[in-house]
Specification:
- By secondary structure, the chain is α/β, with parallel strands linked by helices.
- It contains 14 helices and ten strands.
- The chain folds into two domains: about 200 residues, Alpha-Beta Complex (Spore Coat Polysaccharide Biosynthesis Protein SpsA, Chain A), CATH 3.90.550.10; about 110 residues, no CATH class.
- About 45% of the residues lie in helices and about 15% in strands.
- Strand 2, helix 2 and strand 3 form a beta-alpha-beta unit.
């Protein structure tokens, strides 16, 4: 039995400076009940060399650095954080996220308050405008999916702490469905379905989200998250999950965001064939969830425009310049094949 109560696990890949910034804010909060674990997904520069100084400064804190021999992909590396944690609870935290000043204190208070829970999800105000005036507790998967404003509330890894023992026999399913981009949410949903305890939606927050270096690729998220309808749940559970995905499309992974991300990527690589294939995939796998004819029409129109290289270079370029928000014109779109953790 580990003498520590909480593991703060940080998956990372090639964001050494962001990780150091994270630890600068996090380390002063850690207590003797905490263990820090960093899983380096085979970064070009081993993160151990970057963070050695701050770890020496806080030498009284138990730390583990695990370096993968190969890059296993961001989703798999996130799951490794849950798998490798030896404490009762784990907080998986993005390397580019910053903790609020009293995050650790808040986490321990919630753990003590909800001993029968296996997941405590803290408020994520920037993903969906959900008003959590007081904590909510759920023991059924369908009720949770019905009440949340978006799957984004569960998908943001840094917003929750988890009791690892609730997931001990669920990793094979989660690894099988890493293509959903929400494999850690799959752990939560299956644990609820198997009545391992409760999920608590807290009304307070533990993370401050900085502006990322790359724009999140909404098309990647849309194509991945729609694969969750292939999960081995009952028909009634899948219907509730589909409704949650429809809410997610309205509040988080929006139609506009998906189309803009595809156009940005297209105007950066000028590959018409790839654009048509991805538009067809998004139309088939994601936007049919809501079956809104306007969305189907615009996706089809973009596919038709992309057939002609001459028209595509002018027409899609014009749409790209009109739709791309000013706030991201100086930043690059995260490519579909990029590992983030």
């Amino acid at each position: 039995m580990s003498p520590y109560k909480l593991t703060i696990a940080i998956p990372t890949w090639n964001r050494n400076k962001a990780l150091l910034r994270n630890l600068t804010e996090l380390m002063p909060q850690l207590t003797t009940e905490c263990e820090l674990m960093v899983i380096d997904n085979c970064s070009d520069i081993p993160v151990e060399t970057t963070i050695a100084g701050i770890l020496n400064t806080y030498s009284g804190i138990k730390t583990r650095i695990i370096r993968n021999r190969y890059n296993v992909g961001g989703n798999a590396n996130i799951l490794r954080c849950y798998e490798q944690a030896t404490t009762e609870w784990v907080w998986v935290m993005g390397d580019d996220d910053l903790p609020q000043k009293e995050a650790i204190e808040r986490i321990f208070a919630s753990i003590e308050k909800y001993p029968d829970s296996f997941c405590i999800n803290f408020k994520v105000a920037w993903i969906v405008e959900s008003i959590r005036t007081e904590p909510q507790r759920f023991t059924e998967m369908r009720t949770l999916l019905d009440q949340i404003g978006s799957l984004g509330e569960l998908a943001f890894i840094s917003a929750a702490v988890h009791k690892v023992s609730a997931y001990h026999d669920l990793f094979s399913i989660a690894y099988q469905f890493t293509n959903t981009n929400i494999s850690h949410v799959i752990l939560v949903l299956f644990a609820l379905a198997r009545q391992r305890g409760s999920v608590v939606l807290e009304s307070s927050s533990i993370v401050v989200r900085p502006v990322p270096d790359d724009v999140i690729n909404d098309s990647l998220l849309a194509l991945g998250i729609s694969n969750s309808l292939d999960l081995p749940f009952s028909g009634k559970d899948l219907l509730e999950l589909k409704k949650a995905l429809q809410k997610t499309e309205r509040t988080w992974i929006s139609f506009r965001g998906v189309i803009v991300s595809l156009l940005i990527e297209h105007c950066e690589n000028n590959d018409n064939a790839r654009l048509r294939i991805r538009l067809a995939s998004v139309r088939r796998r994601y936007f049919t969830l809501g079956a809104f004819w306007k969305k189907w029409f615009y996706v089809t129109l973009a596919m038709l425009i992309s057939i002609s290289p001459g028209i595509a270079s002018r027409g899609l370029g014009w749409i790209y310049r009109k739709l791309k928000p000013n706030s991201i014109k100086t930043r690059k779109m995260a490519p579909l094949n990029k590992t983030t953790y």
